[in-house]
């Protein structure tokens, strides 16, 4: 089967989440990915929970890749990498700025070996700027850019977000998008380039709604004030009688009025512009009179952007997601067992067969590199 990235060779010099997930997406679109691991292997191979001979998270993020152990600090390892670089299309690295230069594989040096190479660097703060050398993780990046401050939860019980927004939304997705753009540009010019992907940069994109208010009014919304961060009764989480949560996203008037009608909201409170807090309190009181299971058929019939907050287990068994084939692809473990592969936002026609089964790469699987 010919896929969009068939024939594209990718060197993956990354670990943890942003880079491995980016190269996984490239692999799923047909690229051949060689994961370069240090002696002893990627730390994530030992992360818990262990599954079928390796860390489960490592398996999910590295399905279908090949692995090759290289000590880039040794002369032999460096020589082998130089040979590999002569015949590769994309290199993805995730070291702090300057580390690849110290190893002798910064972009300027690599470009001399392969001027057609797309060289993608993923870091927290980018290759330049006074924060470039700062250590950090996802929570630091969303905290540093003002995104977390839009809704940190109550000051006495702040909430850690359930998604790694910076890693995936600021690292993986921009890396994949820009690698594909760079490959297209190379088709036109024949030249490679260096991509500087800073996870923090994209966090301002995620704050688009707050930025619109800030630029237009010269005032940033306070924590929880923005309509999309808890400041509106129309976009809110409401506890039901049994403790289940109702996700209300009835933003548009026709949805909101339908919702207000089915719960029996006092008509004087339907216009939530008058006193949003009073409307929110009244809605909360009404929702709390029934269990989530009792509300579910009511909201389903009303079709007004109201859903029950599901557990992950419930979501995995939802017929809709099963019918969409999100879990049809399989990961084969080192010991031969299988589990569902990580669902990815890549159109099915660009991936392999829906029932394909790809393995976790064993260490140094590729004897010659490829």
From TrEMBL:
It holds the Pfam family CoA_transf_3. Transmembrane segments: none annotated. Residues 347-370 are annotated as: Disordered. SUPFAM superfamilies: CoA-transferase family III (CaiB/BaiF). InterPro entries: CoA-transferase_III, CoA-Trfase_fam_III, CoA-Trfase_III_dom3_sf, CoA-Trfase_III_dom_1_sf. It comes from the Bacteria. Signal peptide: none annotated. One of its GO terms (molecular function) is catalytic activity. This is CoA transferase. It comes from Pseudorhodoplanes sinuspersici.
């Amino acid at each position: 089967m010919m896929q969009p990235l068939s024939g594209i060779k990718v060197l993956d010099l990354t670990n943890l989440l942003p880079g491995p997930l980016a190269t996984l997406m490239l692999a799923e679109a047909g690229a051949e990915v060689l994961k370069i691991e240090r002696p002893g292997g990627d730390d994530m191979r030992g992360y818990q929970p262990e599954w079928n001979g390796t860390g489960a998270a490592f398996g999910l993020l590295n399905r279908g890749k090949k692995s090759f152990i290289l000590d880039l600090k040794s002369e032999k390892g460096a020589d082998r990498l130089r040979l590999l670089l002569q015949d590769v299309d994309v290199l993805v690295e995730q070291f702090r700025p300057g580390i690849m230069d110290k190893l002798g594989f910064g972009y300027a040096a690599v470009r001399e070996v392969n001027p057609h190479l797309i060289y993608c660097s993923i870091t927290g703060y980018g290759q330049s700027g006074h924060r470039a050398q700062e250590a950090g993780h996802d929570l630091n990046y969303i905290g540093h850019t003002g995104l977390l401050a839009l809704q940190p939860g109550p000051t006495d019980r702040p909430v850690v977000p359930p998604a790694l927004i910076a890693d995936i939304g600021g690292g993986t997705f921009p890396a994949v998008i820009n690698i594909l753009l760079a490959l297209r540009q190379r088709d036109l010019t024949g030249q490679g380039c260096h991509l500087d992907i800073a996870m923090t940069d994209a966090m301002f994109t995620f704050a688009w709604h707050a930025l619109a208010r800030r630029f237009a009014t010269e005032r940033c919304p306070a924590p929880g004030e923005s309509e999309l961060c808890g400041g509106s009764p129309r976009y809110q989480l409401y506890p039901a009688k049994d403790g289940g949560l109702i996700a209300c996203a009835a933003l548009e008037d026709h949805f909101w009025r339908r919702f207000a009608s089915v719960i029996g909201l006092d008509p004087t409170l339907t216009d939530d512009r008058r006193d949003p807090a009073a409307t929110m309190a009244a809605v909360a009181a009404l929702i709390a009179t029934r269990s989530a299971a009792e509300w579910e058929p009511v909201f389903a019939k009303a079709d007004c952007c109201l859903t029950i907050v599901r557990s992950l287990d419930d979501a995995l068994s939802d017929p809709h997601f099963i019918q969409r084939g999100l879990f049809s692809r399989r990961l084969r473990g080192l010991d031969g067992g299988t589990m569902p592969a990580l669902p990815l936002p890549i159109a099915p026609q660009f991936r392999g067969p829906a029932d394909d089964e790809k393995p976790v790469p064993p260490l140094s699987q590729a004897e010659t590199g490829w």
